[in-house]
Specification:
CATH class of chain C: Alpha Beta
CATH topology of chain C: Rossmann fold
CATH superfamily of chain C: P-loop containing nucleotide triphosphate hydrolases
Structural class of chain B: mainly alpha
Radius of gyration of chain C: 18 Å
CATH architecture of chain C: 3-Layer(aba) Sandwich
Structural class of chain C: alpha/beta
Largest sheet of chain B: 2 strands, antiparallel
Radius of gyration of chain B: 23 Å
Distance between the termini of chain C: 33 Å
Number of helices of chain B: 12
CATH class of the largest domain in chain B: Mainly Alpha
CATH topology of the largest domain in chain B: MetI-like fold
Strand content of chain C: 25-35%
Oligomer: heterotrimer
Shape of chain B: globular
Shape of chain C: globular
Chains: A mainly alpha (about 290), B mainly alpha (about 300), C alpha/beta (about 250)
Strand order of the largest sheet of chain C: 6-7-8-3-9-10
Helix content of chain B: over 70%
Order of helices and strands of chain C: EEEHEEHEHHHHEHEHEEHH
Number of helices of chain C: 10
Largest interface: A-B, 87 and 84 residues
Chain lengths: ~290, ~300, ~250
């Protein structure tokens, strides 16, 4: 009787583990398949011309250079606003803030910022930056919008990295006559930097791929020239892909896949850089 | 030397504190501008007409009910997919997978979370929707179901990463205690580990739902964009339109300051409040769990 | 013997009101080892942390009393705590080396103070390592990460790190609690040399260590200073019954 009971339990475990494993596989296979498929379909479209030329014939021929440059500009613009602010806010939460109702409100605010739909950010950007502050449809308006959207990601990963630094280091630094800021700058920030960097890159990666926030704040479908100032509108890869796949009749499939591939490579590269930074830092860590 | 250090440090500390408060400022700003442009709706459109079942802006019909049901049905479908697969994958990664598989799987799921939704929507149009049209013998592949599938895939990484963190955080002692009492690993997962991580897993689900509600591009590209009231289960296989897609699709064509413009902002307000609600619910779950833990430990 | 530190009627409490120390009065003579010993929870570590105002980082406040170092009350809010912490060095129970090289660990405190001259820093490195009896063991690998050292070496590095700032007082809070007997012996030997120049307060991790090292001894029990003696009298002929019970191992 005991033997069969034990066999029963182990059978259940076998089945259960198999089911769960299959679920995990079913989740992962589409990811891999998607990436491979886009590479396979898009690679034929990639040529030097595709990457460095302007579009011709209503986007149906030529290259996507302005979209690539535009996404680059937007990513840099987002970084300029969100990175210093985000890291500073994270330092505040990790090193200065006590557990008061005000601090809890700040945390709730951050969680909320993280959950707001991207298209609502687009509306907000339209209302504040484009119309109220009169920046117009511009790289500036789009970058500011994307920055606020990226802020919660940067703040939470940066705070986590700062908190991971052992408290004992701070105590030692203070006991040697260090001020709070000296301690933060020389030890805490220095040790948390790889983690912070990883979070920043992952946040910017998301910003680079977003369409809805830039729809009404900075994206343009076709511009004959590259943007010359932050007040110009710009083309951008995600928006470009969206339009050519849904709104341009007789769009060559090749170009669509090529555009998707370029965007994918942009995002994957950032992901790879972040992963590499994270694993190398973990190996070199002295604590 | 000490003096200048103090002055410099004072400024830096002030800047840091100001940055800390900025999050509250931004939430307030967002809400303020949504309200500023959305409230005029009530002056221009009869409030009750907003709950009509026809969304047809050209004829000044602004019934948002079909949009709401569109969002609900797509989110519901997405949740049905994202929750089992998400939690299952999280359990696999945290409890079952060998070390080397974990090292590959975690970055892979993170990768999925980083894929731009417009790329997924793009593949949805070109690959998924024609396939479903043929496979399920439907008049069109652009349906709520297609949207749910895609959205489920988009929400899965959120569910996996939060749930996996929660499972990981369960102290090893709990599992070892169960094993010492003769439980199999399977039994331990379901009777000990998962219940212990309950609040974190619930948070994962709520955040996944929040992600699904808020998704714009992928849904817009594959759900067919027909603002039709979804009334029965069969509606799952016909085109719908979500609130997010409506804003994205129509904002570019409205005149600034027109009624249509205000109504779109109003929809934005609704979305903001929904996500606020989901987040507050999620935080209160964690808060209550923490209180319970504190009571038990003290 | 001049008294370096005078503690007058000191009472400490946590932010929720529970008391840590009650009415403690103690004189710490200079250039000697004063040992504060007793069972856990006696308030000794808390007292140490007040001496260099590290209690500012925790929720411990002095509700009454003064701590005079060289005649100045360091509990006074106007005190220059930065200067105080350079004057009063501290070694903690677990060796905490900073995530840097051995050399950088030692120069860290000086760099905080603004010292930039390479020669001054090098000189401080050598001087403090010799005082901590670590120089010979590490002089050829100063650029190595400090984490590579053994536990006992790390603790002596922490001692040297405090010494680099040329303090006048050194506080040691159970410095050898995680160390093997040989390393413990090296630390205790270093203290014997160091007390010629510095005022030392030691919280030992065992009564035996207290008996070995004390020039002056104070027995703390549940926040109260029970007995104090010059020399080893507390261990051989204690006056209070509670002291005797603890020293002979009847509780602890």
């Amino acid at each position: 009787m005991k033997r069969s009971l034990s066999l029963n339990r182990h059978l259940v475990q076998r089945l259960g583990f198999t089911a769960i494993t299959l679920m995990a596989v079913a989740t992962v296979i589409p990811i891999v398949a998607t990436v491979i498929y886009i590479f396979a379909q898009g690679l034929p479209a990639i040529s030097l011309e595709f990457l460095t030329d302007f579009p011709h014939d209503g986007m149906r021929a030529g290259g996507i250079l302005p979209a690539i440059i535009g996404t680059l500009y937007l990513t840099i613009g987002t970084a300029i606003f969100s990175v210093p602010l985000g890291i500073a806010a994270a330092i505040y939460l990790s090193e200065y803030a006590a557990d008061t109702p005000l601090t809890r409100t700040i945390r709730i605010a951050i969680i909320n910022l993280a959950g707001i739909p991207s298209v609502v950010y687009g509306l907000f950007g339209l209302g504040l930056f484009v119309l109220f502050l009169k920046f117009g449809t511009s790289i500036l308006a789009a970058s500011l919008t994307l920055s606020i959207m990226t802020l919660p990601v940067i703040i939470s990963t940066a705070e986590e990295s700062l908190r991971a630094v052992p408290q004992a280091f701070r105590t030692v630094s203070i006991s040697l006559g260090g001020t709070r800021w000296q301690t933060i700058r020389r030890i805490v920030l220095k040790e948390a930097l790889p983690g912070i960097l990883t979070g920043v890159i992952l946040g910017l990666e998301r910003a680079a791929g977003e369409t809805a926030p830039i729809l009404f704040t900075g994206a343009a479908f076709f511009l004959p020239r590259l943007p010359g100032s932050p007040f110009d509108a710009t083309m951008a890869l995600p928006y470009h892909l969206f339009v050519i796949s849904t709104q341009v009749p007789e769009m060559p499939i090749q170009i669509q896949y090529g555009t998707a591939l370029v965007l994918l490579v942009f995002v994957l590269t950032m992901n790879l850089i972040a992963t590499v930074i994270r694993s190398r830092a973990r190996a070199k860590r002295q604590w | 030397m000490e003096k200048s250090l103090n002055w410099y440090e004072f400024i830096i500390t002030r800047l840091i504190k100001a940055s800390g408060y900025s999050a509250i400022l931004f939430v307030a700003l967002i809400f303020f501008f949504l309200v500023r442009e959305g409230i005029p709706t009530f002056g221009e459109v009869e409030s009750t007409s907003l709950l009509n079942i026809r969304w047809y802006p050209i004829e000044d019909r602004f019934g948002i009910l079909p949009l709401i049901t569109g969002s609900i049905i797509v989110t519901f479908g997405a949740t049905l997919i994202a929750v089992p697969f998400g939690i299952g994958t999280a359990i696999y990664i945290s409890e079952i997978a060998p070390r080397w598989v974990r090292e590959i799987l975690k970055p892979l799921v993170e990768l999925l979370g980083g894929l731009p939704s417009v790329v997924l929507g793009f593949l949805g149009i070109l690959v998924l929707s024609p396939f479903l049209r043929v496979f399920l013998d439907l008049p069109t592949g652009l349906t709520a179901f297609t949207g749910s599938l895609l959205l489920g895939g988009i929400a899965v990484p959120t569910v996996v990463s939060v749930a996996e963190d929660a499972l990981d955080a369960v102290p090893r002692a709990y599992r070892e205690g169960a094993w010492a009492l003769g439980a199999t690993r399977w039994q331990t997962i379901w009777r000990v580990t998962l219940p212990a991580a309950r609040s974190g897993v619930l948070t994962a689900i709520m955040l996944g739902v929040g992600r699904a509600i808020g998704e714009t591009m992928a849904v817009m590209m594959v759900t067919g964009n027909a603002p039709v009231l979804a009334t029965q289960l069969g509606s799952l296989f016909s085109p719908v339109r979500t609130m997010t897609a409506t804003i994205a699709a129509e904002m570019g064509e409205v005149a600034s300051g027109s009624t249509h413009y205000h109504v779109l902002f109003f929809i934005g307000m609704v979305l903001f409040l929904i996500s606020l609600g989901v987040n507050i619910a999620a935080s209160s779950v964690v808060f209550r769990a923490k209180k319970r833990a504190e009571r038990i430990l003290s | 013997m001049v008294d370096k530190i005078i503690i007058e009627d000191l009472s400490l409490q946590y932010s929720d009101g529970t008391e840590s120390l009650r009415d403690v009065s103690l004189k710490v003579p200079e250039k000697a080892v004063t040992v504060l010993f007793g069972p856990a929870g006696g308030g000794k570590s808390t007292l140490l942390r007040c001496l260099n105002r590290l209690n500012d980082l925790t929720e411990v406040r002095a509700s009454a009393g003064r701590i005079l170092i060289d005649g100045q009350n360091v509990l006074d809010p106007d005190t220059d705590v930065i200067a105080l912490r350079r004057k009063v060095g501290m070694v903690f129970a677990r060796p905490v080396v900073l995530p840097m090289s051995i050399r950088e660990n030692l120069t860290y405190g000086l760099e905080l103070a603004g010292e930039k001259h390479r020669s001054k820093l090098d000189e401080a490195v050598e001087r403090s390592l010799k005082l901590a009896a670590l120089w010979d063991e590490v002089k050829d690998r100063l650029e190595d990460p400090a984490i590579a050292l053994s536990g006992g070496q790390q603790q002596r590095l922490c001692l040297a790190r405090s010494l680099a700032l040329q303090p006048e007082i050194i506080l040691l809070d159970e410095p050898t609690s995680g160390l093997d007997p040989i390393s413990t012996g090296k630390v205790e030997a270093a203290l014997v040399e160091l007390k010629k120049e510095f005022t030392i307060i030691l919280v030992p991790h065992s009564v035996q260590q207290a008996a070995r090292t004390a020039d002056y001894a104070a027995f703390f029990l549940q926040g109260e200073l029970v007995e104090y003696s010059e020399g080893k009298g507390l261990f051989t002929a204690p006056k209070e019954k509670r002291t005797e019970d603890y020293v002979t191992g009847r509780f602890g």
